[in-house]
Amino acid sequence: VVPVMLKxxxxxxxxxxxxxxxxxxDAACYVCWAFARAYEPAELIPFINHISxxxxxxxxxxxxxxxxxxxxxxxxxxxxxxxxxxxxxDILTAADYFAVGNRxxxxxxxxxxxxxxxxxxxxMIDHLVYMKINHWDSVIRELATKALHNITPQAPEYMANxxxxxxxxxxxxxxxxxxxxxxxxxxxxxxxxxxxxxDNNRPVTYYFTEKSLEGLKQIHxxxxxxxxxxxxxxxxxxxxxxxxxxxxxxxSKMPFRGDPIIGGWQWLxxxxxxxxxxxxxxxxxxxxxxxxxxxxxxxxxxxxxERGEADPALxxxxxxxxxxxxxxxxxxxxxxxxxALGALPRFLLKGRLQQVLEGLKKVTIISPEDVSFAxxxxxxxxxxxxVCQTVGVKGDGSQQEYVCRDNVDQIYxxxxxGVTDYTTDSRGDVGGWVRxxxxxxxxxxxxxxxxxxxxxxxxxxxxxxxxxxAQQSAEKIDKFRAHAGSxxxxxxxxxxxxxxxxxxxxxxxxxxxxxxxxxxxxxxxxEAFPRITQLLGLPAYxxxxxxxxxxxxxxxxxTTLRYSAQSLFDYMKGIQSEPSAVERFCETLLKVFEDxxxxxxxxVPLLTMLDQMLANGCFDLFTExxxxxxxxxxxxxxxxxxxxxxxxxKLRSSIGVFCxxxxxxxxxxxxxxxxxxxxxxxxxPIIRKTTASQVYEMLLTYxxxxxxxxxxxxxxxLSDTNWEAExxxxxxxxxxxxxxxxxxxxxxxxx
Length: 751
Known about the structure:
1% strand, mainly alpha, 36 helices, Serine Threonine Protein Phosphatase 5, Tetratricopeptide repeat, single chain
């Protein structure tokens, strides 16, 4: 029975899109549990080591949490009751029912502890090598190789003399899953062995034979010979893992300096970055990160001489090639090489910094041909920050080598441009990726400058950064609002040393106390908007916060709309006793409208917000004043905004604004009625109907704008007319209203 049970504990087979075996493994665990109760301990002694190892392996390395927990419980009985399992109590404590619930913790932490007991070391390693590196689930394969890395110090000779020679042929075999896992396992084990040798003051090749070193080099050569002529999804998958191998061999400081293999590695990294378009977006990110990490490790180990410098010819070729790829018509190639430039070490950027920054800056500029290349712009902005961190800061230094007085303004201008990217396409607000990257890069560059030479940050630059962050903190998308809020508070509360020139620092620290930096939930509109609207009272932030709020208050998301609108109305209610504050707010509001005229991203929700503000009495201070300039200017801007527009949402929002403007006294009332009567004969029936309905409600709400008898007749016409009828019929009824209210009849413009 025992051999069958041991085999059942590791039974796993993929059939179609699913795997079978979890029920078998779970049942096998139950059999083990039953063994401990059915037999005397003495009868089980010949099988104890096999059963205990199999249960430990199932408890730590099984793919399914149910099986891991079943194995843990099955191990518990003989370990705790009879005490027959080696180191049973210690293992039981580390791998109890709850501890094995987390798969990553099992593979990377618990396994290392258990492998420290000699009875379990080799069985665990063998299971990973024979059963897990060729597993059908790629996540299990990758976890298995990381587990091998962590367990290597427990049995370095066994890894070097048995496991590695076993893996090297598999890494160039025909089965894709096996090859994938074997390449990763070779990379992880090699890195672990080299680290162990260095820690013990031995040569890095101490654990390797000449045959093993050649086998490691052979992996790249075999992969290239198989895939050099054709690049497909399978090839991408393998190249990704070879990039990881290159990274680990470079970090291991393998004695390959001057070897032709280095040129082959560089070719493979470049080719991986050129073929990102062939894979899915999820796999694309992994391949890009693997290639970039491999490039950084390769350069740091093999491209630097004894003086800490790069070979000029190699530097010129590499940097020039990468910068030229930034203008490739393929977006993903721009992404890959942008990130590659960001990963280059300082000695390769020395003397080439301006060339790199200019190349990355061009990627961030939106042109008609590449307006949808949001991912390329995002990666270029990330790369700019990485480059700045790599080269460091020196105020009086050369702009070819450092972030300095001559180039700091250019760097900030590029990053600040990224915060204004609101590109949308079929994927949605793709500009959000760019804005998020720009905010992160602004934070990283600013903190770098603050810690090195804070005087390079001008008051104007700091004001722009904080204002844009405040605007993003007031916008409608939770994810980007939370990121902006986090960056804003990081800069505000940074102390080593403080960021200079932050406008209204004391007021900001009062609104956002230091102790709330980690606890304030920016994702929750109910927490974020009551705080951010308080910035409307700070002159430096008012314009940008109001611009961000306009999009939120006039948006479509119910939760965001409710809390942002309520916070805005509370602020307006609080300043009604200060006419100067209301005047200043209205001037800013008109400036926002004027600057974004016909920019539908802002103007449409802004009209909706104005409709709500007028309905909630936010401007009651001006309703008693004859011909106040605010409603006059607002009417003019609304009229200009909807001119020749066919946007239903915009037109309907404007109707609400026009109806709200009727509460202001003066000559403009006639102009408002005239505009509304124009809309009563709009070509779109829905607009005619909406206008009639809202004018009716307006006359009910503001009954004092007309004499009672005229008002009743007007409401009768509005309610009795079918405003979706033919235009000549509608126009006749509209003209009756004009005559009744003594408003000039709109005239048809001859075409």
